[in-house]
Amino acid sequence: MVDRFHRSGLTHEAFCEQEGIPISTLGYWLSRIRRTSKDVAPVVFSEVRLASPIAPQANSWAMEIVARSGVTIRCREPMLVGDLARLLRGRGC
Question: Could you give the CA distance from residue 7 to residue 3 in angstroms, rounded to a whole number?
Answer without folding.
Answer: 6
